[in-house]
Every structure is written in structure tokens, then in C-alpha cells.
Specification:
Largest sheet: 6 strands, parallel
Strand order of the largest sheet: 3-2-1-12-13-7
Strand content: 15-25%
Distance between the termini: 52 Å
Bound molecules: 5'-O-[(L-methionyl)-sulphamoyl]adenosine
Shape: elongated
Length: 510
């Protein structure tokens, strides 16, 4: 296998239906997966659902169904939405699948064989909605420091993972691998947390039964985070590795998560892996949280943004573009309909849409839609063309940093430059004089070639739009990739170009 790239979303709890926050993480990963594929990587892109634990058990009880029935029902909503958002995942893992359970048992077994799992007794404050134990000092007025809801004191026999033993090894790993936790502020947060000292971690529960039982003591179910985190290797086939995916794709290139689940991914998960003697993921990237029209999204506020509805109303590519363009990846952001409509009208309809419709309309009019051959170049052409190769490289760096909004800015600078090039070269004037027909051909060729590169660069963000533009240019989107085709001059003269329908109709503000 050539270059490989493995990236994951968190697995989503099935006690909630998908909203814009879940869609965000998955979309960001999809953009990255598509970008890497276009760059010639063999990509494994994993998503799935987290189906065990007390929360799911309770939600099922409340709905009068079995936890598995609830999971089967909700998982369809996630899968439906991913299809609608054009998510190109390689695999969808459910923690209730046999392949996953087998993997969790093996991880538990390996850590136990190392002497790092022992039976003890646990007593602390438990937040059921967050499935997290807290010490007395961590509570805020007796409530959960994460969600603010009441906690209860629980005492139970429990298996413990000797996490304290791995404190130094983890610190060392974080310090010697500056890119392991991103963005930087998150890394600092975790560094100080680990430096304060790691306690051993309770990794089994006896107070409910919806989970994976501890093999030799089935009165215990394995802690939902031990279970859930293992999905990243169970989906690859750990430990048997029947398809060789574990060998090819582990360690993961990046786990993309929300900032709320950073500690689980950068403290628990790496120490489990260290104990099991497995390599650590290369990077964990925590993005920020979305509020809606300035407020926290919550069922009680009835402001949960339902992505299906957004896609129906504005189109899938507009939503994909907006979520990744509006907010720097890693920071919090606010979702508002006004901001969305503004982006659609200015960036998509005006900048990108107009470039494509003006260019193809002029080509139809002046050259019957056939790509002319460029004849020489003037200063204005060079200062239009040269920045494209720089932009392609800049976008690559920005994508590798998961700086999606910056990559889009870089692309939009090129779109802006192309629109300006039209205004400055004034093809309609060149068309009036037969003496400048060669010059007109050069200008048109440059615009079309710019369109091709722009289509390739926007493709991962807006797959339908990218494909449409390539098809307009007479190219096969299946065979047109950034890899080997990211240089200027790839478009052949003589190609028949179609006249474009408007890509993004303007939206009247409500
Ligand atoms: N099941 C765990 C993850 C286990 S991974 C081994 C979980 N699930 S979740 O469904 O609650 O959340 C999944 C992801 O959605 C998290 O990364 C979380 O940050 C993200 N979001 C949920 N609400 C969000 C916003 N309002 N804004 C942005 N992302 C948010 O945690």
C-alpha cells in the first residue's frame, strides 16, 4: 500500500439525535478525508456510534424499549444524515457489534496481563449524564463541573486501571511530540492536568448492565469510555486483523474530537495504549463548540439546529462551506441564519458562482465553448498565474494543520483574483477587435485553467460543486485529482466546455 491516512470522528451517543454539533465534527473529517484521497492517499475514515452505558440504558427505559432497539433506531438517523451530507466514511462502527466486543476484551486482557488492572473499591461523586466520576474537590457546589447537573455518591466494587503508573510516560510523550495535542491551548491544558498527578481509573461498573461484561466477572460491565475509545482499533480489526487494516492504518493520523472530550482522548486513551504496548495516535485535534444565535444549543431552549432541515433549505454544499469557513477550526463559533445567508450570497453566489457563469458564458460566446490555446503571456497573466502554484502549496500546509477556514480563505483569494483578472483584461473589449483574438484566447484559457484548479481545491469542501465545475470543463471528476494535476496548464485546448447553470442561486433574506 502507498501513502495511508487514518482519521476518525468521535462515536456518537445514541441517546441523542444528530444536530449541527455532531455534523460539524463529521464534516470536518470528511473534508480532510476527501482532500487526502485527492492527494493520492489511501484513506481510512471512521465514524460510528457509542451505544453502551447508563445513559443509553436510561433513555431506553424511558422510551419503553430495549437499549438495542433504541440504538438500532437512532443509528439510522445518523446514517441517514451522513448520506445527506455526502460523508464518505470507509466504515461505520457500532459498539454493540461483535467485532468491537472482541477487541475490547483483548485490550482489557492485555492490560490485565501486564498487571495494570486490579480489583478494588470505588467511592466518589458520579454524574450520570456525563458518565463521569468526580472527586469532592472537583464538584462545583455539589454539581458536575462539566454540565452543572447534580451528582450522586456511589460506592462499588470496581476494576481499576493503573493510570498513575503511566503519568511520566504520557508527560514525556506530550512534551516530545508538540503536535500530539492540538490546538496549542488544549495541549497546555492537558499538560497541567497531567502534571497535577494521575489517579488510577475505575474501568468497570456494577450498578447497571448495558455494556460489555468483564469476561471473568460478568457482574461488572466495562466502563463506557474504555469501551468507546477502543472503537478506533476495533474497526481496523484489532487484534486478528483479518483485512490487514490494523497493520496498514494504525496509529491513526488524527482523532478529531470536540473540546469537551479532550481528556478522554489525550489522557485515558494514550495510557491504555501505552499499557497494552500499542502505538499512540499521531494527533488529537479538539475543535470548539457551536452556539446558536448566541445561545447554548439545548433541547429545553428548543434551538437545536437540525442539519437535515438546513440541507433541504440551503443545499448540502452551502452548509458544508459555511460550517468550515465561518469559524477557525479549534475555536468556538456561533451559528446564525443571517451569517449563513450572507456567506451563501457573497462567497458562493457572487464570488464563485459568478466566476464560473461569466467565464463559461464568454467562452460560449467568443469560442463556441471550445478551450482556446494560450499564446504567450503578459505581465498581468504571470501575476495572475504564479500565485496559483503558491496557493496550492499553502492550502496543503493549511489542510495538514486542519486550518480549514484558512485554506478556504486562500482559495477565495484566488477566486477574487480571477474575477479581478476578468475586469482588468476586459475580454468583451478584446472580442471586438480581430487583431486581439489571440490575446482573448490566452485570457480565456487562463480563466478556465484557474477554474479547474479552484474546482479541485474546493472539491473536498463542496464535492457536488467541485464535480460540477470539472464536468463543465469536460473533465471526469472521478479521474481528476490534485495529485499530479495540481500544476498550471493541465487543461487541454480543444476541450468542449458546457455553459454553466448558476451554481448557487442568491437567497433573499427573510
Ligand atoms: N460518545 C462520546 C464520544 C466517544 S469517542 C470514543 C460523545 N458523544 S457525543 O455524541 O456526545 O458527542 C460527540 C461529538 O459531538 C463531540 O466531539 C462533541 O464535541 C460534538 N458536539 C456535540 N455538541 C456540540 C456543539 N454544540 N458544537 C460542536 N460540537 C459539539 O461524546
Amino acid at each position: 500500500m502507498g501513502k495511508t491516512y487514518y482519521l476518525t470522528t468521535p462515536i456518537y451517543y445514541v441517546n441523542d439525535v444528530p444536530h449541527i454539533g455532531h455534523a460539524y465534527t463529521t464534516l470536518a473529517c470528511d473534508v480532510m478525508a476527501r482532500y487526502k484521497r485527492s492527494r493520492g492517499f489511501e484513506v481510512f475514515f471512521l465514524t460510528g456510534t457509542d451505544e453502551h452505558g447508563q445513559k443509553v440504558e436510561k433513555a431506553a427505559q424511558a422510551a419503553g424499549e430495549t437499549p438495542l432497539d433504541l440504538a438500532d433506531r437512532v443509528v439510522k438517523r445518523f446514517q441517514f444524515l451522513w448520506e445527506k451530507l455526502n460523508i464518505s466514511h470507509t466504515d461505520f462502527i457500532r459498539t454493540t457489534q461483535e467485532r468491537h466486543k472482541k477487541s475490547v476484551h483483548e485490550l482489557f486482557r492485555r492490560i490485565e496481563a501486564k498487571g495494570d488492572i486490579y480489583l478494588g473499591e470505588y467511592e466518589d461523586w458520579y454524574c450520570t449524564p456525563c458518565e463521569t466520576f468526580w472527586t469532592e474537590t472537583q464538584l462545583i457546589e455539589g454539581n458536575c463541573p462539566d454540565c452543572g447537573r447534580p451528582t450522586e455518591k456511589l460506592k462499588e466494587e470496581s476494576y481499576f486501571f493503573r493510570m498513575s503508573k503511566y503519568q511520566d510516560a504520557l508527560l514525556d510523550h506530550i512534551e516530545t511530540n508538540p503536535d500530539f495535542i492540538q490546538p496549542r491551548t488544549r495541549r497546555n491544558e492537558i499538560l497541567s492536568f497531567v502534571r497535577e498527578g494521575l489517579r488510577d481509573l475505575s474501568i468497570s461498573r456494577t450498578t447497571f448492565s448495558w455494556g460489555i461484561p468483564v469476561e471473568k466477572n460478568p457482574g461488572h460491565v466495562i466502563y463506557v469510555w474504555f469501551d468507546a475509545l477502543t472503537n478506533y482499533i476495533s474497526a481496523l480489526g484489532f487484534p486478528d486483523d483479518p483485512d490487514g487494516h490494523f497493520a496498514s492504518f494504525w496509529p491513526a493520523d488524527v482523532h478529531v474530537i470536540g473540546k469537551d472530550i479532550l481528556r478522554f482522548h489525550t489522557v485515558y486513551w494514550p495510557t491504555f495504549l501505552l499499557a497494552a504496548g500499542l502505538p499512540l495516535p499521531k494527533k488529537v485535534f479538539a475543535h470548539g463548540w457551536w452556539t446558536v444565535e448566541g445561545q447554548k444549543m439545548s433541547k429545553s431552549l428548543r434551538n437545536v439546529v437540525e442539519p437535515n432541515m438546513l440541507v433541504d433549505k440551503y443545499g448540502v454544499d452551502a452548509i458544508r462551506y459555511f460550517l468550515l469557513r465561518e469559524v477557525p477550526f479549534g475555536l468556538d463559533g456561533d451559528f446564525s441564519h443571517a451569517a449563513l445567508v450572507h456567506r451563501i450570497n457573497s462567497d458562493l453566489a457572487n464570488d464563485l458562482g459568478n466566476l464560473v457563469s461569466r467565464t463559461t458564458a464568454m467562452l460560449a460566446k467568443y469560442f463556441d465553448g471550445v478551450v482556446p490555446a494560450p499564446e504567450g503571456s503578459e505581465e498581468i497573466d504571470r501575476s495572475f498565474i504564479d500565485p496559483f502554484s503558491i496557493a496550492v502549496k499553502t492550502v496543503d500546509t493549511q489542510m495538514n494543520d486542519l486550518a480549514f477556514n484558512k485554506a478556504l480563505q486562500t482559495i477565495w483569494e484566488r477566486i477574487g483574483a480571477a474575477n479581478k483578472y476578468i475586469d482588468e483584461t476586459a475580454p468583451w473589449t478584446l472580442a471586438k477587435d480581430p487583431a486581439t483574438r489571440g490575446r482573448l484566447g490566452t485570457v480565456m484559457y487562463n480563466l478556465l485553467e484557474a477554474m479547474r484548479l479552484i474546482a479541485l481545491l474546493v472539491g473536498p469542501f463542496m464535492p457536488e460543486t467541485g464535480s460540477k465545475i470539472l464536468q463543465i470543463l469536460g473533465l471526469d471528476p472521478e479521474k481528476t485529482h490534485l495529485d499530479h494535476q495540481d500544476r498550471w496548464g493541465f487543461l487541454s485546448s480543444g476541450t468542449q466546455v458546457a455553459k454553466a447553470e448558476p451554481l448557487f442561486p442568491r437567497i433573499e433574506a427573510e
